[in-house]
Structure formats: C-alpha cells, structure tokens
Amino acid sequence: MTYCAAIRLKDGMVFASDTRTNAGVDHISTFRKLYQYGIEGERVMVLQTAGSLATSQAVFTKLQHDIDQRYESNLNTVLTLFDAAQMVGECMRNVMNHAKTVANDDNGSQFTSSFMLGGQIKGQPPELYMIYPEGNCIRATKDTPFFQLGESKYGKPILDRSVTYDTDIQHAARALMLSFDSTIHSNLSVGMPIDFVIYKSDSLETPEGRRIDENDEYFNTIRRQWSKALRNILVELPEYPDNYWNK
Amino acid sequence: MTYCAAIRLKDGMVFASDTRTNAGVDHISTFRKLYQYGIEGERVMVLQTAGSLATSQAVFTKLQHDIDQRYESNLNTVLTLFDAAQMVGECMRNVMNHAKTVANDDNGSQFTSSFMLGGQIKGQPPELYMIYPEGNCIRATKDTPFFQLGESKYGKPILDRSVTYDTDIQHAARALMLSFDSTIHSNLSVGMPIDFVIYKSDSLETPEGRRIDENDEYFNTIRRQWSKALRNILVELPEYPDNYWNK
Question: Which CATH class is domain B3-236?
C-alpha cells in the first residue's frame, strides 16, 4: 500500500508520499513515489502515485523519456497544468492497456495506478489535480484544498479538522506530517521514509524537499509532543455528569 | 455503512454503535445495531453488528426468539461467553445460507454481517469476542483490548494512541466518543445517534447506556474542546528549523 497527500493553499503547496511498497507481507521494499519535473523560473510540477508500482514506474519513465528526447509534446512543453494532467492520464491508460495485452488478462485490476499532479506554470495560478485510474482528473478547489491517495483514512481526520485553503504553509506541513504519523502508527503497509516537498506560490523554483526518515529529529520531536498532548487533552476533558448514563 | 467499537478494560467494558444504515445515498435510515441480553446478577451480554441489516436483524430476532421460547440452548443458558459467540456465529451462518438459497445466489456477498459480543457470566472473567462473517471468532486480550467493525479506519488512530487494557473506563469512554466524532466528521455513512453502553466488571448488572444524539450537551462539549485543543496543539508545535527543507 501507499499513503500520499497533497494540499493546495493560498500561499503554496505541500506534498508528501511514503516510500513503502508491498506485495503481501514478505515483499516489502522502499521506492520513491514522488517525482519532480519542470524548468526553473518557468514551470514546476510534482507528480505522486499510488497503486501498481510497475504501472507507476513505467509512467514516470515514459514522461521523463519524452522530456529527454525533446518530443514536441511533453511535460516541459504543455501549455497548462490541466494539459499536463491529461498527459499523465493518457500515459497511464496506455501503460495499463499495454500491460493487459501482454498479460492477456481482461480483468487487469492489478495494473491500476492513480496519480496526483501539482504545480504551477508561469503566468497561471498554482493547481493540484487528482488523476483517476480511468485517466480523467479533478482539480483541488478552495472548498476542497487537499487530495489523498492510497491508505488515506487514518490520516484524514487531522487534515479535515485543521487544514483549509487559508491555512499557513508551516501549519499545513506539520498537519501533514502528523497525518503520516497517524497512518504509520495504525497501518503496517505505510512506512518511512517520507518524501516531503514544499512549493511557495509564484516562486517557480524547484520546490524545497526533504526525505524524512526514522532518525529525523524534528519529525520525532513533533510526533512525540503531539502524542503526549493528545493524551493530556483526553485526560483533561471534563468528566461526564452524574446520571449521564442510563438514559 | 456502520461504525461500532468495543473495548475490554481492566475495570470494565465500553461499547458503542452508530445507528445509520444506507443503501446508496438515497436510502439512509436509523436502526439500532446494539442489543443487550442477560439475567440480572447472573450474566450480561452486549451484541453489536455491522454489515447486511437484514442478516443482522434476523440474527437478533432468532437469538431473542430462542430465549423467549426457552429453547434448551440459548444465550441465557450457554455455559461460557465463548459458547455464546459460537452460537451467534452459527446463527449468522444459518441466516446467510438461507438468504443465499432463497435468492438462488451463490455469490451472496450482500448478505454478509459481522458481530461483536462482550459481557460476563457469573464466576467467569469478562470477555469480548469478534465474530467473523465465516462464523468463527477471536477474543480480545490485554495486548489487543479493542475491536472495531465497519468504517473503522478514521477512528482507529485515537484508540491506538490512547487506549490500553489499563486505561480508566471514564477515559476510554471519552476516547471512544472522540473516535466516533472523528469518523462522523470524515465519513457521511456513519451518523448519530450513537448507542453507548458501559459495563463495570463483576457488577453483573444490566449495563448503563445512553443514546447520544446531536443535542447531547456533554458530547458536544467534549467534541468542541477536543477540536479546539487539537488545533491549538498544532499551532503551538515548534516550527521547523532553518534549512530543514532542501535535504
């Protein structure tokens, strides 16, 4: 499994992907599932994935190949981020259809991937897309500023409670770290390290990023403080009134 | 969908079940999914369910019918709680098999239910069982003191963090309320009111219970305080150090 999430805020974007892949509990490996594309000062794109690692890697490889070979249409030449999302979707459909043909398997659900693409092209607003296994996509809005892929449920409550479009980047980044902490705590199939990337709106600079591993001092500090504070709040909440039960 | 959970603690047990059922988003109804059985001073049982409402109701009905008709073997005559869990499992398998026969449908996944049974019989320790759709069951232990059914993921992190076998009943009950609050916040298919029941070990009294609805003053107080405190902690966590990113 995988957990990845991305948030589009007023002042920028925060992206995070774990790196655990597993096929059963015996085959556990570490693979990067977050990639960056772009041209400094002109366009920035961050692509995240969940699902079949073979499909996802083939898509990353094909997209990079098209850039390297300077094909007319690639992520560095598309006019809008929407076009880029469409390109990713089509590329994924091609990979999945090819895999099904090779496997001679009409079912082929094991080849399914999903993607999220966020970024900005000069002169246009920053955007974040969720690209479905069917190849189509939706865009994050002010009402719905974040998307998640994969093992998303454990980490959703904290984002639901604390992140809106107007949330400060620093706070949203911390909420996202704790969203990963909750998920890792409750689910074995999501694991460290986590690839974290922060993009500031209109900077058009390759975003800042960090691979957070088990020894990351800051991450461990806030996860400990968070965990302790949660337990403290719970203990300090008011006791239920007499005769509260039996009604 | 449904969310229900039960915790077996050193000093007692806490049970909670929501009451929303849905078939699609158009058919939303309120149904009790938590029932009590027992004989004051001799045995106490709390039965919770998730899954096909038709199967669950048929099981509740059959179990009550066997008690009312004073059949030799019923929940009021079984010797152990393990026997009671087996009885529930067998009853559920019979109902599911019958439904499949009537429907002439070998697939029959739509008839599946799961149950949790907790309680105590005089002279024996309190026990909590999870009864799988296959009819077999597992028992909660000191290492794993709680079980969940249905839409369990949103509400699991808070239980993972705050509940152990030695947790005070009052604290565990509050954690369970907040676990429901998180789930309802993040998922439309789980809804109020919530049936809550608390049993004190060795009391052998019909447990105290309360149906918590949207207007419950205490529940609303702690959910507001919790939500506010969470946001405060998040804001008060230390900022990340300079140069934390770009590594």
Answer: alpha beta
